[in-house]
Amino acid sequence: MRLKPTLKRNLPERDVLRLGDLANWRFEGTPLAVLGHPVKHSVSPEMHNAALRELAVRNPAFKDWHYFKFDIEPERLREALDLLYENRFKGLNLTVPHKILAAQWIEAAEPEVRLSGACNTLLWTENGYRGYNTDLYGMTRAIEESFALKLQGRQVLLIGAGGAARAAAVACLTHEVGALHLTNRTREKLDLLVEELAGIRADIPISIHPLTGAFSIASPNLIVINATSLGLKESDPAPAVLWGLHPATKVLDMIYNPSKTALLKQAESLGMRTANGLPMLVFQGERSFKIWTKNSPSVETMFRAAVDGLAE
Ligand code: ATR
Fold first, then answer.
1. Alpha helix segments (H runs only) across 186-234
2. Residue 206 CA neighbour count, 13 Å, CB half
3. Using an 8 Å Cβ cutoff, are 184 and 160 in contact?
4. What is the pLDDT along the chain (312 residues), one digit of tens a residue?
5. Which one, of 286, 265, 189, 277, lies nearest residue 225 by Cα?
6. Confidence at residue 13, expressed as pLDDT on a 0 to 100 scale
7. DSSP line for 55-68
8. Residue 231 CB less than 6 A away from ligand 1
9. Is 189 a catalytic residue?
10. CA 229-234-239 angle, 5° bins
């Protein structure tokens, strides 16, 4: 692929590139990219390119930076990372299903990656890619912004036991929640998660709850977080029933497309405050952008670009 930064207006933003496009990669600017499978739905390119355009007005050194989107199968992730490194992709975002895989390979990593076993951001360095997990920051900031409260001292009911749930659980423990309640469809995966979390904060109580029926948690201080993939399809039912929980409960669904899942509709009908995953996406993006460019983007610009990208 031959691309000149001078032709930037014509650079692919919505196009999904593939591994083959790296074989003859000739982009003369500084490339960034998100890798996923599937990845078509991702609005990260719109979000980051909007922030890059804004930054380039202040600092022309960023004029030739561009954020691309690659669909990479998990079996070819290793090969893709090597090629992206050779082609000097300055920064990468990893999304489903690459976060856990990559965390196993990246030797130089921030503590959040080691604790959560998941990596969503890579930075090119002379010694290889350095791994970060900005999802933890994204989730914490999203809760602060959406509900005007801090995680510290709160009770959290976390639904799910995959990579997203693991990162959320680590964020809860490192931000000193009062208690962590866990639930998941498959009990074995939940037991494994509890084992992995042991030792991060031994003083914070962790309890396991069945996913069927109403939860027996009475606290008005509760935040429910959906970290399962149930809700991604419009027709998906809610992963849990919220009846019986205190109406002051706050509910965060990590899913942002569709913007209102069955879980959020249920929560609203019970008078609970809700937030979808869009603020989390934007805040994790803000942190990644800062890691790559050493500049703070406008969160508002990123948010607007993500909303516009979703509307198209
Ligand atoms: P991610 O990395 O995005 O977290 P994952 O590791 O595949 O993805 O985890 C998906 C989560 O969604 C799991 O908690 C999964 O539950 P299981 O452990 O029982 O598989 C949950 N999930 C997916 N489909 C679900 C469904 N139909 N009902 C309930 N939970 C579901």
1. 187-197
2. 21
3. yes
4. 545 444 444 556 668 999 999 988 989 999 999 999 999 989 999 999 999 999 999 999 999 999 999 999 999 999 999 999 999 999 999 998 899 999 998 989 899 999 999 999 999 999 999 999 999 999 999 999 999 999 999 999 999 998 889 999 999 999 999 999 999 999 999 999 999 999 899 999 999 999 999 999 999 999 999 999 999 999 999 999 999 999 999 999 999 999 999 999 999 999 999 999 999 999 999 999 999 999 999 999 999 999 999 998
5. 277
6. 60
7. HHHH-GGGTTEEEE
8. no
9. no
10. 40
| 185 Cβ below 6 A of ligand 1 | yes
Rounded distance from Cα 141 to ligand 1 centre (Å): 24
**Residue 252, amino acid:** L
**Sheet with 273-275: strands ordered across:** 206-208, 179-183, 155-159, 222-226, 250-253, 273-275
Measured distance CA(166)–CA(162) in Å, rounded: 6
* Token pair belonging to 30: 């500084």
- Give the domains, in start order, of the chain with CATH numbers: 19-133+279-311 (3.40.50.10860), 136-276 (3.40.50.720)
CB–CB of 39/18 below 8 Å?
Answer: no
Atom from ligand 1 closest to the CA of residue 99: 2
Rounded to whole angstroms, the maximal C-alpha distance in the chain is 60
Q: What is the DSSP letter of 311?
A: H
- Indicate the top mutation candidate among 228, 230, 254 to test ligand 1's pocket, ranked by most ligand atoms within 8 A of CB: 228
C-alpha torsion sign, points 44, 47, 49, 55: negative
**Is the distance from the beta carbon of residue 161 to the nearest atom of ligand 1 less than 6 Å?**
yes
